[in-house]
Amino acid sequence: MADTKFTDQNFQEEVLNSKTPVLVDFWAEWCAPCRIVGPIVEELATEYGAKLKVGKLNVDENQIAGKYGVMSIPSLLVFKDGQVIKTMVGAQSKDNFKKELDRILAN
Amino acid sequence: MYDVIIIGSGPAGLTAAIYTTRADLKTLVIAGGKWGGQLQLTTLVENFPGFPEGIQGPDLMLAMRKQAEKFGAKFLEEDFASADFSKTPFKITASDKTYEGKSVIIATGADTKWLGVPGEKEKIGRGVSSCAPCDGVFFRNKNVIVVGGGDSAMEEALVLTKFASSVTIIHRKDAFKASEIMQKRVRENPKVKIIFNSEVTQILGESNVTGVKIKNNLTNQISEMPIDGIFVAIGHMPNTGRFKDIELDEQGFVKVHGHFLTNKDGVFVAGDVHDAHYKQAITAAGYGCAAALEAEKWLEMPTL
Questions:
Q1: ipTM of the complex in this document
Q2: Do both B225 and B241 map to the same domain?
């Protein structure tokens, strides 16, 4: 499943109301580490398939980042049943992200 | 089997890669998940020679990488995990795979030195930052402080003036050590306030930063300052933690023997991981070149 584009408008429906856990990648065009993480997030979308909904939220085009205390990008937040259950700040290797995600999804 | 394995992908590592590949040495660069080093996190670089209009940090790193790859350097965007320098070929492990190299150049650079005060670690990314170009945008019309006294701290403060309504620099000494031109820019910026002889002792706030406790070093008085963000710019720590047998100096930087050699024959070093003194992109690039030339010479030596 390819990654989704999240916006202020579809956030409630796509992220908060989602039955499966959701990984939201907060990013912006001018952020170099975000450009490194972007393709990794797309690969995670494919690899986790139906187990995890994955998508990106552009912080220049949307306001909702502030609501979740995001003050640095890239920030990857995992939502489950409408709540943030994990925050990962900063660029990391794909392996590091997977270790965290596997741990969260196992619970 | 590689002739050279370069651990690190900042200006030191990438310049080394350009030189080793052009010397026809089979080169692997363990670039890391966040390749490119400290310059990926900055905006306009105005002091790297060759760019009279300056160049954006990420653009400079991309250009260096393209140049290294053009001559045949293989890039691995995986994190370096461990090294076995007990015998040649050396074994370097990244993401559970091990690679063999006849020689190694350690160019792992340095990472942010945090204050180490209560309330800091949990709020990184939630008001605690070490990169104004990265995170400044989240502090539009807010009040922020910068901790530090060098060029990086001045740079951070100036970048933040584009977003924040107030920027206060807090420095523990009574004068900055930054270059004159940066100090002048800061002094002349009406948005910047300066507090000398002071240190941040605690960062306050439940999930995000709401304030800091500041201690005046002369009077020992502690005061509280409400702020929305704190940018730490007090220097960097060399990334040496994963090297077990490499000798370090008293400050924790890789100890250099002779010309860019570590205590292990055939293992060279370049850049901020050994250099505590200059810490410039151009000096790192210069050291990367020198280490590469040394590695090339060493590989050509006849084995007894």
A1: 0.79
A2: no
One domain for residues B84 and B152: no
Q: A31: closest CA among B132, B304, B102? A: B132
pLDDT at A2: 64
Q: Among A59, A83, A93, A98, which would you mutate to test the B interface (most chain B Cβ atoms within 10 Å of its Cβ)?
A: A93
Q: Which of residues 76-105 of A touch B (CB under 8 A)?
A: 87, 89-96
Quick one: closest CA in B to A93, which residue?
A: B33
pLDDT at A1 over 50: no
Residues of chain B with pLDDT under 50: none
pTM of this structure: 0.84
Q: Nearest CB to A71: which of B40, B78, B126? A: B126
Catalytic, A31? Answer yes
User: Is A91–B78 a contact, with Cβ atoms under 8 angstroms apart?
Assistant: no
What is the pLDDT at residue B33? 84
Cα–Cα distance between B167 and B160 in angstroms, integer? 7
CA atoms of B144 and B132, how far apart (whole Å): 10
Nearest-angstrom CA–CA distance, B35 and A43 = 18
Per-residue model confidence (pLDDT) at position B304: 59
Tell me, which fold does domain A4-106 have in CATH?
Glutaredoxin (3.40.30)
Tell me the three state secondary structure of residue B172.
coil
User: Which entry of B84, B111, B135, B289 is annotated as an active-site residue?
Assistant: B135
Mean pLDDT of chain A: 92
CATH number of the domain to which B97 belongs: 3.50.50.60
User: Per DSSP, what are the bridge partners of residue A92?
Assistant: none
